[in-house]
Amino acid sequence: MQETGVVFLTAVFGVSSTDHTNKIINFLCNSFIMATKKTVKSKGIKKSISKTVTSYHKDGTLWGRGKMKDDQMDGYWEWFRKTGTIMRSGHFDKGKQVGEWKTYDQDGKVFKVTKMKP
Question: Measured by CB atoms within 10 angstroms of the end CB, which terminus of the chain is less buried, N or C?
Answer without folding.
Answer: C
